[in-house]
């Protein structure tokens, strides 16, 4: 991918107009970054920005903060020459300078995020994400990514070891989620958070709950002497030049405690039960039903995070919020009865079982109200277990149905629930 702004005539026109006005107003280089520029120049800057962002590749891969940093640098770098000759050739050279720097910002790269409380038996690929076991050495890491089809330039001697140390040895001692991307350093964080943390990760957790395996839970971690207790940063590897840098986790979703045990065989079982169809629907659907489901998945995942960290109160509240995100209708419809009946109708097939689930959910909703309104902060283990179970089963049933419906409004879900009253 190459973003060549100098080849777009509208962007070239707006760049030439901007440079010409800067020359006419005799703005010195040290004033370019001032916030108090003349209104006409502000208007031309905005026009240039709007024209540039009509480029689809720029809009999809480069954050505005990155773009303006490159524009300001390119203007100030050779500003006296632009100002002395504010013609079309100067505008083209200016845009070529910006484009050359955009090429580096959008170079193919891997975002590498260590994850805690996770067992991975062998590398697995889901969409643009590769999930791998602890790598141990630089040689093992390079072999793993090359086996997945990623060819990297030679990593500078000593750089990988430096990344090991500065990540608290998480880079080699913990499982990794690796994302291929061409987005810039700001947008890649949003891509990881939106696609993995808010969609793929919760769906994996949902399947992990439905198709459970025997053995010790992944939440039992064995710590080596040099391994940091927490994961504080991710790593970005530029595939073109082999350079690596650390990135904070604040905008990627924070430290991930997955609690997952994954293997190629388990993923095959998931895929036999429409896992790929569900992920594809979440990726592509734009209707308000998909928005409901994404919100519910996010709260479901937060509930599991809280449970892993022994915060049962938060886990219970987040689980009920997830259910409210799925099933709340018009303000005039009583939420307690709506949740109870919707979950019962979706997850059970007999009158007896539906009645039991409905009564149990009414009780859980009453417990939620006592916590929120009366400050009762005790959550029984069975109440947390059932609230999470209702989340997982409801999400699984909705995603199973919705992945066959396509891009539909949430009214289709409510129609299906109403239909099941008579089935």
Tell me what the structure shows:
This protein has 423 residues and is of the alpha+beta class. The chain has 3 domains: 5-105, no CATH class; 109-261, no CATH class; 274-420, no CATH class. Helix content is 59%, strand content 8%. It contains 18 helices and 8 strands. The chain has helices spanning 9-24, 39-52, 56-61, 64-77, 79-84, 88-105, 138-147, 159-166, 170-173, 187-210, 264-271, 275-284, 288-308, 312-327, 335-347, 351-374, 381-405, 410-420; strands at 109-114, 119-120, 124-126, 129-132, 176-181, 233-238, 244-248, 261-262. It has a 6-stranded antiparallel β-sheet, with helices on both faces. Strands 2-8 form a two-stranded parallel ribbon. A hairpin with a 5-residue loop joins β6 and β7 (244-248). It is globular and about 85 Å long. The N and C termini lie far apart (53 Å). The mean pLDDT is 92.
Q: What strand order characterises the main sheet?
A: 3-4-5-1-6-7
- Secondary-structure element series: HHHHHHEEEEHHHEHEEEHHHHHHHH
Per DSSP, the total helix count is 18
Low-confidence stretches: none
**Overall geometry:** globular
Helix content: 55-70%
- Number of domain units: 3
Radius of gyration: 26 Å
Task: Please provide the count of β strands.
Answer: 8
Question: How would you classify the helix and strand content by structural class?
Answer: alpha+beta
First-to-last CA distance: 53 Å
Q: How can the largest sheet be summarized?
A: 6 strands, antiparallel
């Amino acid at each position: 991918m190459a973003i060549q702004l100098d080849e777009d005539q509208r962007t070239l026109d707006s760049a030439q107009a901007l440079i010409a006005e800067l020359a006419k107003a005799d703005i010195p280089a040290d004033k370019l970054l001032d916030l108090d520029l003349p209104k006409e120049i502000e208007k031309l800057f905005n026009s240039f920005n709007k024209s540039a962002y009509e480029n689809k590749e720029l809009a999809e891969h480069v954050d505005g903060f990155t773009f303006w940093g490159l524009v300001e640098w390119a203007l100030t770098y050779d500003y006296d020459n632009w100002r002395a000759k504010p013609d079309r050739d100067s505008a083209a050279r200016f845009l070529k300078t910006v484009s050359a720097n955009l090429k580096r910002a959008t170079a193919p790269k891997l975002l590498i995020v260590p994850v805690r409380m996770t067992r991975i038996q062998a590398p697995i690929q889901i969409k643009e994400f590769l999930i791998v076991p602890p790598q141990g050495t630089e040689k093992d890491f390079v072999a793993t990514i090359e086996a997945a089809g990623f060819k990297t330039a030679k990593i500078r001697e000593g750089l990988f070891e430096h990344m090991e140390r500065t990540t608290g040895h998480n880079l080699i001692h913990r499982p990794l989620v690796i994302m291929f991307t061409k987005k810039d350093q700001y947008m890649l964080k949003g891509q990881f958070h939106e696609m993995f943390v808010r969609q793929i990760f919760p769906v994996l957790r949902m399947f992990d709950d439905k198709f459970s395996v025997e053995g010790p839970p992944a939440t039992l971690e064995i710590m080596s002497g040099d391994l940091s207790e927490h994961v504080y940063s991710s790593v970005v590897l530029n595939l073109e030049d082999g350079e690596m840098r650390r990135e904070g986790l604040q905008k990627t979703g924070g430290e991930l405690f997955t609690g997952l045990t994954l293997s190629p065989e388990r993923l095959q079982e998931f895929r036999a039960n429409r896992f790929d169809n569900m992920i594809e629907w979440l990726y592509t659907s734009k209707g308000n039903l998909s928005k409901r489901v994404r919100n519910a998945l996010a709260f479901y995942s937060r509930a599991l995070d809280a449970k892993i960290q022994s915060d049962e109160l938060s886990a219970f509240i987040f689980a009920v919020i997830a259910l409210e995100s799925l099933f709340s209708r018009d303000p005039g419809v009583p939420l307690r009865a709506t949740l109870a009946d919707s979950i019962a109708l979706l997850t059970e097939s007999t009158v007896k079982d539906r009645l039991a689930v409905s009564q149990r959910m009414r009780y859980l909703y009453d417990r939620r109200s006592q916590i929120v309104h009366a400050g009762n902060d005790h959550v029984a283990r069975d109440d947390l277990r059932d609230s999470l179970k209702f989340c997982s089963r409801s999400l699984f049933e909705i995603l199973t149905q919705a992945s066959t419906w396509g891009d539909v409004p949430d009214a289709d879900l409510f129609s299906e629930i109403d239909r099941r009253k008579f089935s």
